[in-house]
Design a protein that fits this description.
The chain has 342 residues and is an alpha/beta fold. The chain folds into 3 domains: 67 residues, no CATH class; 53 residues, no CATH class; 181 residues, 2-Layer Sandwich (Nucleotidyltransferase, domain 5). It is built from 15 helices and 5 strands. A 5-stranded mixed sheet has the order 3-2-1-4-5, with helices on both faces. A hairpin with a 4-residue loop joins strand 2 and strand 3. Helix 3 packs across helix 4 and helix 7 packs across helix 8. The longest helix has 17 residues. It is elongated, with a radius of gyration of 24 Å. The termini are far apart. About 4% of the residues have low confidence. Keywords: Plasmid.
């Protein structure tokens, strides 16, 4: 019988979080139980979940293949068809393009794509709901693999950043005194589920979890005079929310504003460009991959530090805590960050 020496508990738990089949879940739990309890045999672990000793022999031998094969080929009994595609060719192309960028480019506060996050993107962006296995297949067909090395996202080179800083200095010097310089950005705070926590020894507690990616969406701005304001958004980030975000500071600071922002598609959309062209708004797009030059990012960093070690049961709790934390944000210095004058 296989010893599962080449398959760690962490590997099994990662796969367990991805599967969407009750039988596969029970099998993986049997393997995890065997790995975590030293004195337990594979047969005993299998019996805890209602499986026979002959099943245990076959299943644990099969799990050894996880070191060399995609887990879908190992943990499921047979290929299962997902829901027929309802994406148009154009929508599929947009989905593939989004997958090859950071989730932040699509408005998600997440470092990398996962199956639940990609599924959530399809629901919110196109109104199409697939099972997780079908989404996983779409991701694989798009050229991504969970077994490959982590992608290294594009980072702006120093020359591009220096050129932008020089251009920004010149633009700032050319503006009249009535202009207010602003940095704007957006973030999502996801209502995450609890996976690991401390429990008394000998207990195997269960917790209610959800596969939904419920979140609150926030738009924010910080001015060169040290003022900040933040707007909750009830919809996905798009050109309309960007225009509202540009319109709000005009009410606060006057029509003449110079705005520093990144290259997210909803910031660079044609509708946003046309809105700015018809107003005294100056848009200063940062070089791609230069988050460190956007002062508004510092606000989100402070927010994440405040909320990072707390668990919220509902969106209302998360929203109240986020807005309360934003009231105590220490405004970053725009000029120090953008042009590094100090």
């Amino acid at each position: 019988m296989a010893t599962l020496e080449n398959v760690s508990v962490e590997d099994l738990r990662q796969i367990l979080a991805e599967v969407d089949d009750a039988d596969a879940t029970k099998r993986l739990m049997a393997a995890i139980t065997y790995k975590e309890i030293d004195e337990l045999t594979q047969t005993e672990a299998a019996q805890l979940y209602g499986f026979s000793s002959s099943w245990a022999s076959e299943w644990f031998n099969r799990l050894e293949r996880l070191a060399d094969e995609p887990f879908e080929e190992v943990v499921y009994d047979k290929p299962r068809e997902g829901r027929p595609s309802e994406l148009s060719d154009e929508e599929h192309e947009q989905f593939v393009e989004a997958l090859h960028q950071s989730p932040e480019e699509a408005g998600f506060d997440a470092p990398a794509w996962s199956v639940p996050l990609a599924r959530h993107y399809l629901i919110e962006e196109f109104g199409v709901e697939f099972c997780e296995r079908h989404v996983r297949r779409l991701i694989s067909e798009a050229g991504l693999s969970w077994k490959t090395a982590r992608p290294e996202y594009y980072k702006s080179d120093e020359r591009a950043q220096e050129a932008w800083q020089e251009g920004f200095k010149k633009k700032r010097d050319d503006l009249d005194a009535e202009y207010t310089i602003l940095a704007i950005d957006q973030t999502r705070q996801v209502l995450s589920t609890l996976i690991y926590a401390w429990f008394p020894e000998g207990e195997r507690p269960s917790l209610p979890v959800t596969g939904a990616w419920d979140s609150i969406k926030l738009l924010g701005a910080v001015s060169d005079t040290g003022e900040t304001f933040f707007l909750p958004s009830s919809e996905n980030f798009n050109s309309d929310t960007t225009i509202r975000l540009l319109d709000a500071p005009q009410t606060e600071f006057g029509e003449k504003i110079c705005v520093v922002l990144d290259n997210a598609s909803y910031f660079t959309a044609n509708a946003v460009q046309k809105f700015a062209e018809g107003s005294p708004i100056e848009l200063c797009y940062l070089p791609r991959g230069s988050r460190e030059l956007n002062p508004a990012e510092d606000c989100w960093k402070q927010l994440n530090q405040e909320l990072g070690n707390r668990l919220f049961d509902t969106l209302d709790e998360l929203r109240d805590a986020a807005l309360s934390a934003l009231d105590s944000i220490k405004p970053p210095d725009i000029l120090r960050i953008c042009v590094r004058e100090y």
